[in-house]
Amino acid sequence: MTNQQNVVVVDVKPHGGVKPPLSSPVAKSFSPQDLKLLLIKKRFETENAWVLDSMRASSPTRISNPTTTSLPETDVKSSWIVHHPSALNMFEQIVTASKGKQIAMFLDYDGTLSPIVEDPDRAFMPREMRAAVRDVARFFPTAILTGRCRDKVYSFVKLSGLYYAGSHGMDIKGPSKSCKDNNNGKQGVLFQPASEFLPMIDEVYKALVEKTKSIPGAKVENNKFCVSVHYRCVDEKSWATIAEQVRSVLNHYPKLKLTQGRKVLEIRPTIKWDKGRALEFLLEALGYNNPNDVLPIYIGDDRTDEDAFKVLRDRGLGFGILVSKIPKETNASYSLQEPSEVKEFLRRLVEWKKLSLQTPIIG
Ligand SMILES: O=P(O)(O)OC[C@H]1O[C@H](O[C@H]2O[C@H](CO)[C@@H](O)[C@H](O)[C@H]2O)[C@H](O)[C@@H](O)[C@@H]1O
């Protein structure tokens, strides 16, 4: 008996479908080692095709419901807006729901407080938006939840008195007394559930910089507890290469996983922690253990914000607001089209609060 086995090569399609045997009816001979390598190769190709499909579809997933795709685009849009009305149009209902409760604001950064731009290092927050966030934080406990490194987002927002949850909620810090305090090392840090991953993330960051350096437009960002590989400025013809390179690095790190955002591949620890868990943590840190005391409002534009929208929906708590111009699958209740509408919504909240503090309660 030899070490060879008769194996028919089967081509596995990206979504798990199986094509007819490649060389049927002639079977090829493979050693167990060859077979193992072949299966690894197939799995790699399958995962890669999946990542690439997803990159093309961009984020968050556009509506692909068979009941809506047959409709003209304008009908899809109006059907979506019926189910996710504008938070500006629903403003009265939102503030009415807060009666007897404290509103707590949770804000994503990129695409919510600052418009999406090509260079992630230049995603500055407009002055008027900063003023709106500062005013909101005067009246309502406010937190920024972002995929970015916490220090980086603080350098954009520059507001003390807020909670900051960086690295998709894996780096949470409470308000500091002044702007200067904020970068004082670990002082004020509330929670870092992935600290053991720091050396690994650093290693992966360096490996990814090296791997992707030959792809024009690719940019790797070290977000402390996670890494972002940007392909917004990469020619679509090279997207498959970039997906392949990221996967080839990740294959050496089974404790890390790949998720996706807006034209970005995100590498993060496989721990059960995301913006949804961070939101729950923050509610508790703020002392809102009783759901009757608080009305959380979470505003975000990306896939990772869906974890937070889902927590709110599942717990029947507050409202998720998706920032999007186009219909997308979402767990949010309401929508806003773009950051300028977010600013308008925040301003209206402040005006409403000021007015309600002036108005004597009758009865
Ligand atoms: O959770 P977020 O605050 O939304 O952070 C998610 C990622 O945002 C940044 O990337 C995105 O914005 C860039 C600047 O507008 C844009 O160039 C990029 O294509 C977007 O994906 C940030 O650079 C990433 O690290 C965050 O993970």
TrEMBL record:
<keyword id="KW-0346">Stress response</keyword>
<dbReference type="GO" id="GO:0005992">
    <property type="term" value="P:trehalose biosynthetic process"/>
</dbReference>
<comment type="similarity">
    <text>Belongs to the trehalose phosphatase family.</text>
</comment>
<dbReference type="InterPro" id="IPR044651">
    <property type="entry name" value="OTSB-like"/>
</dbReference>
<dbReference type="InterPro" id="IPR006379">
    <property type="entry name" value="HAD-SF_hydro_IIB"/>
</dbReference>
<dbReference type="GO" id="GO:0004805">
    <property type="term" value="F:trehalose-phosphatase activity"/>
</dbReference>
<dbReference type="InterPro" id="IPR003337">
    <property type="entry name" value="Trehalose_PPase"/>
</dbReference>
<comment type="function">
    <text>Removes the phosphate from trehalose 6-phosphate to produce free trehalose. Trehalose accumulation in plant may improve abiotic stress tolerance.</text>
</comment>
<keyword id="KW-0378">Hydrolase</keyword>
<dbReference type="InterPro" id="IPR023214">
    <property type="entry name" value="HAD_sf"/>
</dbReference>
<protein>
    <recommendedName>
        <fullName>Trehalose 6-phosphate phosphatase</fullName>
        <ecNumber>3.1.3.12</ecNumber>
    </recommendedName>
</protein>
<dbReference type="InterPro" id="IPR036412">
    <property type="entry name" value="HAD-like_sf"/>
</dbReference>
<dbReference type="Pfam" id="PF02358">
    <property type="entry name" value="Trehalose_PPase"/>
</dbReference>
<comment type="pathway">
    <text>Glycan biosynthesis; trehalose biosynthesis.</text>
</comment>
